[in-house]
Structure formats: C-alpha cells, structure tokens
Amino acid sequence: MLTKIIAHRGSKGVRPENTLVSFEKAIDEGADGIETDVHMSKDGHLIIMHDETVDRTTDGTGRIFDKTLAELKQLDAGSYFGYEYLGTRIPTLNEVVQFLIKKNFTGLFNLELKTDKIQYPGIEEKVSNYMSQQEVPFQIVYSSFHPQSLVKMHALNPNIEFASLFKVQTKFARKFYRSRLVKDWHPDIRWVRAHRFFLPHVQLRPWTVNSTDDMRYCFKRRFDGIITDYPGRASIIRRSIQGG
Questions:
Q1: What is the pLDDT of residues 137-166, one digit of tens each?
Q2: pTM of this structure
Q3: 10, 162, 166, 218: which could join 23 in a potential S-S bond, CB 3.0 to 4.6 Å?
Q4: Known catalytic residue: 8?
Q5: Of residues 8, 45, 146, 186, which has the active-site annotation?
Q6: CATH fold of 4-36+104-242
C-alpha cells in the first residue's frame, strides 16, 4: 500500500488555507485525503477555519464564536495569501462537503473538531447529525486535540474511523487505542522523529510533513499517511520512493 498523502487545510502551501480553492487544488494535485478544521459561529453554523479567531487569515478581527454566519461571510479569506484570491470567502462545512461530493472526491476526509481551546456547546452533535444525513463518496475520519470530543463523537458514531491527534502527550492516544476508540495516531512529525526507535505498532499519519527530508523519511518507512501543506510535491517524492 502507498502512503496516503493528506492535504493539510487543502493545498495550504500554495493556496489560501481552508478555502474551496485550496481543497480544489489538493484534488487537482492528486491528494489521497483532505484535512480540515471545524468551529461553530455565534448562530450555530459549522465553520471551516483553523484558528479560533479570524485575524490571521481574513481582513477581520475577533473570535468565530462571537460572529454570525452573515458576518463571517463578509470577510475576505484569500487576499492575505495573494491579490489573485481577493474575495475568497470562509466556507461552511456544508459548502465543503457539497463541493467534495460535486468533485466526486473518493479519498479520506479528516475533519478535526477544534474544541481544545473553546468547547463549542453541542458541536459534536451538530457535526454528527449533519454528516449522518449526507451520502458521501469519501471516507470520514474524525480527530481532535480535545479527548472529550472524541469520546462524544465515538458515542454518536461508533462505526466511523477516529484518530488521536497530539504533539507530545500520548496518554489519551494510548488509552483510546487500547479501548479501540481510535484506529490511527496523528502525531507531530517532531514527536515521530524523537521516538523513531520506539514507534508504536499503530497506523501513523504525522503532521505537518513539509520538508523533503521528512517526506522521504515517512515514505521510506511506509507510514499509513502524511499530512502536508504540499501534496503536489509529496506525490512526486512518493513516486520516486514507493512507485505507483
């Protein structure tokens, strides 16, 4: 099996992250999966963005949770990356899912619940209810840095795939793997490098694998996947090592 190439927030390295143009680029570059992040707006809409605030990637300021969908839709989410992306909007989860369905994306869709800093009330139920109503051609994987979100999501979706997401702390990852709540570990690539002689026998999909050296390291060890800002470059390097 080839190591899966999972586009981190889409093709984040060459497009404005977590936007439809970034996801489209990832698909065009042949990514095997797409990773993205979900928050909740003031009026209960599921919003695709990485940070808890809009400051870094839009022309606005403030927390997502303090803004309505209408207010978020007024913000420019592309011009920070380049003038040619002026007018790019923040997508909702529904817009991303419908876009992937339209593109007939059949890979892995890794949705991270961003609940480690703000515990959005009821976000697990909202995500679960929405996704259960969709007929999607892709494989769903849920992840979160917040262990309780994984517990809640697993109770709602026991047959969906889950992944433990962590930087250095493996306590919950080990606990959840033993109890079969999670199937995969999504660790920081720096943790993987530091533990290279004692890696557990689990499916590993490290993040964020951007350097050529890190990509080659992961492909040579045939990890289950890598999460990268540059899926196009990763595809070239994978081909040189794993073929396909």
A1: 999 999 999 999 999 999 999 999 999 999
A2: 0.98
A3: 10
A4: yes
A5: 8
A6: TIM Barrel (3.20.20)
